Amino acid sequence: MSDLQAISLSPIVPVALTIAGSDSGGGAGIQADLKTFAFHGVHGTSALTCITAQSTMGVTRVDGLPVEAIAAQIDAVVQDMRVQAVKTGMLLNREIIAAVVERVQSLNLRNLVVDPVMVSRTGAQLIDDEAVTLLRDVLVPLGAIVTPNRYEAQILSGLQINTLDDMRAAAQRIHKCGVSGVLVKGGGMAGELRGVDVWFDGDCLETLRTVTVETRNTHGTGCTLSAAIAANLALGQDPLTSVKNAKNYVTEALQFALEIGQGPGPVGHFFPYLTEHRRLNYKSSP
Ligand SMILES: Nc1ncnc2c1ncn2[C@@H]1O[C@H](COP(=O)(O)OP(=O)(O)O)[C@@H](O)[C@H]1O
Ligand SMILES: Cc1ncc(COP(=O)(O)O)c(N)n1
């Protein structure tokens, strides 16, 4: 039997669903999520929440989709396939968050990874204040894992975050809102804390360190990380193992981040695994 036949006859192909926005530049959002799912050998499905006109230079326009269209996409996938893990990304506004919460609850979606996309790594708020409150009070508590960056963790915890101890305190405070596992990400921290994450699940408080990658091409790191966590959960890994595997994957993808466009380029989702010959034909980050 050929490898191809073996794959198509395989009885269980894990399925993951991303509920997120589109990034026309292909580095973050749905595009990053589907590449990440594919890399992990997980079938990727998607419910689009909004369309951003975006590049490495920034976002020039955002159009939200009607909530009925978002709910219908989720229903279509879940009614047909066994979805083992779900991640949420950019949910844009109150109405969209409420619609997603309603579907997550009524379809009893498990293994939910909430990437609380609210503030960019540079500190710019991406969704309005009312949406922030709803996300914090209603969606985050439904999550198996929530993955705030430095600024999002400040909003969710109400604490200022400047040190590793602050990250630890924030993870513990956010855990109190009902989510099972909290990963406070350190991409927006300064100095040696850049790229250091903190995990708390009620029992275990762990600092996760990888090498710090010296690159400006970090577009899509958060989306890629949360999608990789969802992929690992879909593959049957426990939450902490999923987080550790995902962090290692993001670190490798950062090491092969792409010098594409005029702003911060996207991480290289498949680039660590291209053959040496093909890799040499691309310019990777320094
Ligand atoms: N320069 C870096 N070196 C190593 N890891 C990094 C670096 N920048 C970000 N990361 C990692 O990428 C993941 C995403 O974090 P972050 O960039 O803070 O998220 P977001 O994109 O949501 O702002 C985290 O695991 C973080 O530690
Ligand atoms: C549609 C969309 N969703 C999410 C992000 C955040 O991206 P990052 O992973 O760099 O935080 C983005 N820039 N665009």
From TrEMBL:
Record-linked InterPro entries: HMP/HMP-P_kinase_dom (IPR004399), PM/HMP-P_kinase-1 (IPR013749), Ribokinase-like (IPR029056)
Extent of the signal sequence: none
Keyword Coiled coil in annotation: no
Domain Pyridoxamine kinase/Phosphomethylpyrimidine kinase: 23-267
Enzyme Commission number(s) from the entry: 2.7.1.49, 2.7.4.7
Pathway: Cofactor biosynthesis; thiamine diphosphate biosynthesis; 4-amino-2-methyl-5-diphosphomethylpyrimidine from 5-amino-1-(5-phospho-D-ribosyl)imidazole: step 3/3
Catalytic function, reaction form: 4-amino-5-hydroxymethyl-2-methylpyrimidine + ATP = 4-amino-2-methyl-5-(phosphooxymethyl)pyrimidine + ADP + H(+); 4-amino-2-methyl-5-(phosphooxymethyl)pyrimidine + ATP = 4-amino-2-methyl-5-(diphosphooxymethyl)pyrimidine + ADP
Molecular function via GO: hydroxymethylpyrimidine kinase activity; phosphomethylpyrimidine kinase activity
Keywords associated with the record: Kinase, Thiamine biosynthesis, Transferase
Domain of life: Bacteria
Root EC class: transferase
Pfam families: Phos_pyr_kin
Protein name: Bifunctional hydroxymethylpyrimidine kinase/phosphomethylpyrimidine kinase
Species of the source: Laspinema olomoucense D3b
Gene: thiD
